[in-house]
Amino acid sequence: STELNRHSPPQTSRLTPQLWQLLTTASQAAEKRGWHLYLVGGAVRDLLLAEATAGTLMITDIDLVVDGFHKSADVGAGVELAKALQEMYPAARLEIHGAFQTAALLWHKDPDLDSLWVDIATARTEFYPYPAANPEVEASSIRQDLYRRDFTINALALRLTPPRAGELLDFFGGLLDLKAKQIRVLHANSFIEDPTRIYRGVRFAVRLGFAIEPRTEEYIRYAINSGVYDRTAQTNTKTPALQTRLKTELKHILEAPYWRSALQLLDDLGALQCIHPTLKLDSELTRQLRLLERCLRRFDPQQNLIHWQMRLEAIIAHLAPTHRGKVAKNLQLQEDSIKHLQNLATAKTEIIGSLLKYQHHSQVVKLLRNYDLEILILIALQSQQKIRRQIWNYLTVLTNIQPILNGNDLKKLGYKPSPQYKQMLDDLLAGTLDGDITNQREAEEFLAKQYPK
Ligand code: CTP
After folding, report:
1. Which of 47, 57, 63, 152 to mutate to test ligand 1, by most ligand atoms within 8 A of the CB atom?
2. CA torsion 160→162→164→168, rounded to 10°?
3. Which atom of ligand 1 has the smallest separation from the CA of 197?
4. pTM
5. What ipTM does this complex have?
6. Which CATH number does the domain 5-180 belong to among 3.20.20.100, 3.30.460.10, 3.40.50.720, 2.40.50.140?
7. I want to staple 37 with a disulfide (CB 3.0 to 4.6 A). Which of 160, 201, 342, 434 is the partner?
8. Mind listing the pLDDT tens digit for each residue in 64-95?
9. What is the residue with the minimal CA distance to atom 24 of ligand 1?
10. Would you identify the CATH topology of the domain 182-277?
């Protein structure tokens, strides 16, 4: 339905008083200038979804849309409103994006507002004066703004300015879809225009426990079959913005607790093709990802590695070696991620070939200490059990073994400090690793023999 449905206001009392105060201040500032102000997007959706639950809703992202005309051609009403608010809230940082359309106010660990990000956009794209009191003009302009959005449940607006402050604007049946628990797109071309919306749809579906509405699923499949991934996966310098958005979506998905179900749904829809046309979540990749989780729990309990990034690296590593570096570059992964993926095939051949031959722990250590933890994990995931155990053993045991003597001890034994120390300590370590040196006496005997004074 494209009709404007008016509903009773959602329980804005669920917001913290400080946030509610901020919205009230913003709405008064807008009203004073003869503008309309709306709360839109995720916050409205989450407020409505939270009606059945108790407690205060923690909202960290707020999207506001101002519908108003600003007399200066190079300042949008949104920017003007953001500036006015920043004067009243000096703790906020002001960011202005694009030529003049959107602004953001950011609070970081504020005593009242905690960490909060408020985006303020301007609804009107045509900048001419119009009678603000004319309800038809007003309705068409906020409606247009909402129509550009992804899903019906994200296209609800809550009017903050009078008259009818608190009114919910639902042009596209978003409230019904919230009740029916479904993700429905606003128009047939949505995924063609922005393929990352496929990933967003999946994310919302899995996160909220919603279904993707059948027609919407058809549109997704149609977009994929018509090759939207040519624009994302294959390319090309023309779509860096799209690639960045895809990476952002992948990050959101892969760092969420529900990442496995989301990946499965993406695969069911054929949407992994947006990363690369040959990418499939087959049983081998599923096995490797399960192994990766065990491995991250064991080797990285402090979370020094970036876990979502490791998951993405493992996924890309599942592609044929020739595709890996390109996909990683397209997605603009960090330099070291790109390097891991580019070097994986060569490193894997070298490591597996050597580990199969080696008899001594010292050989294993000398080889593996040249590699990052990340690349060792990626290789272990892809290797047979025998190799994997050797890598695990290196990471958990061998890497912690120290030579029995240190540089100070060498000095006490009367060796003159010199670059040779490194070689001596290395030899001591090798002897220790291989079980030839088990105590201080054996260490000293070893030195006396190998490095006579
Ligand atoms: N949006 C869109 N298409 C995109 C990205 C965003 O239409 N590719 C719109 C959606 O309507 C969304 C709004 O922009 O509600 C704000 O985007 P974002 O903050 O990413 O989404 P939220 O809905 O707030 O989701 P979340 O709860 O995950 O922050």
Report:
1. 63
2. -20
3. 8
4. 0.87
5. 0.93
6. 3.30.460.10
7. 160
8. 999 987 766 567 889 999 999 999 999 999 99
9. 42
10. Hydrophobic Seed Protein (1.10.110)
